[in-house]
Amino acid sequence: MIPVHPEYDPEDPQSDQPERPGPPSKSQLKREMDALQALGERLVGLGAERLAKVDMPDDLRDAVKDAQRFTKHEARRRQLQYIGRLMRNIDPAPIQAALDEFDGISAVAKARMHALERLRERLLEDESVLNEIARRTATADFQHLRQLRRNALKERAENKPPRAFRELFRVLRELEDQADD
Fold first, then answer.
1. The overall pTM is greater than 0.70
2. Is 10 contained in some domain?
3. Which of 56, 100, 120, 146 falls between 20 and 30 A from 168, CA-CA?
4. Which domain holds residue 135?
5. 99 located within any domain
6. How far from the centroid of its chain's Cα atoms is residue 15's Cα?
7. Which stretches of 26-89 are DSSP H helices?
8. Helices vs. strands in the chain: H and E counts, helices first
9. pLDDT digits (tens, 9 = 90+) for 23-67
10. What is the C-alpha separation between 108 and 75, in angstroms, rounded?
11. Cβ neighbours of residue 56 under 8 Å, at least 6 residues apart?
């Protein structure tokens, strides 16, 4: 016979057996470890410049750099398991947030991109927006920005592919990054 809590009534949906607090199941622990290992794999896939922007302990950074060097499948797999084990001892939320920002998933990254797109559109409509850009960043190459603006307007008028339009966005994003640093 299965032991039942004395206050449990199978007919009454309101009376549940009290939940027993206990350790997480083995399956739950494995899912968490796999998630940490997958996060580590995403770190390994980053370039050196982006990896430098992620705040993490030095031993984890060294392990990620080692994994990037490994070409043999088994060595890489063991190193990824080691990275997952190192990540158990740290809070993965800041690392996940940084990766989401790189991927453009975070709300902050999306808002920043939308603001840059609006700035680009305003620049195409009115050249006096260059003064606003000058106030933000002193290192801007205004001659290059004006040339990109002219080319983007010309491309738009002739229904050509928006090469200068995209280049203008890239330059504005770089200027914004320099202003943030």
1. no
2. no
3. 100
4. 107-180
5. yes
6. 44
7. 26-44, 48-53, 58-69, 73-87
8. 9, 0
9. 888 888 888 888 888 898 999 998 888 888 888 999 999 999 999
10. 37
11. 43, 64, 90, 95
Q: What angle do CA 130, 114, 177 make, to 5 degrees?
A: 60
For residue 12, which phi and psi values (nearest 5 degrees)? -100, 115
Nearest to 43 by CA among 89, 112, 111, 103: 103
176 and 114 in one domain? yes
User: Do 138 and 89 sit in the same domain of this protein?
Assistant: no
- The string of pLDDT tens digits covering residues 81-121 is 999 899 888 888 889 888 888 877 767 778 888 888 998 99
Provide, rounded to the nearest whole percent, the portion of the chain with pLDDT above 90: 24
With CA atoms as reference, report the closest residue to 65 among 73, 56, 100: 56
Q: Indicate the helix (H) or strand (E) that contains 117.
A: helix 107-125
Give pLDDT, residue 82.
Answer: 92
